[in-house]
Amino acid sequence: MTDLTLTPLIATSLFVLACLAGFQYRRVWKAEGPRWQLWVYGVFAGVTLLVLGFVPMAG
After folding, report:
1. Which among 2, 30, 34, 47 counts the fewest CB atoms within 10 Å?
2. Total domains present in the chain
């Protein structure tokens, strides 16, 4: 079994993508845009933050 770890570059990239997805979620929500876009941005941001929270970083 291989160890699943995140490098600092990957973790930073995931964090930036999660922030951008959260920003897009808020933009669509305030504009009362399509619900499917809310789900896409929200689920992506949530899953990305869960990965960052539970997958250890390489030391």
Report:
1. 2
2. 1
Residue 42 CA to its chain's centroid (Å)? 8
**What range defines the domain where residue 32 resides?**
8-54
CB atoms near residue 18 (< 10 Å)? 19
What CA–CA distance (Å, rounded) separates 34 from 27? 11
Answer whether 0.85 is exceeded by the pTM: yes
Rounded-to-integer distance, Cα 16 and Cα 58, Å: 18
Please say if the pLDDT value at position 1 is more than 60.
no
Residue 39: count other Cβ atoms within 10 Å of its Cβ.
11
The owner of tokens 């960052």 is 52
Is 27 among the domain residues?
A: yes
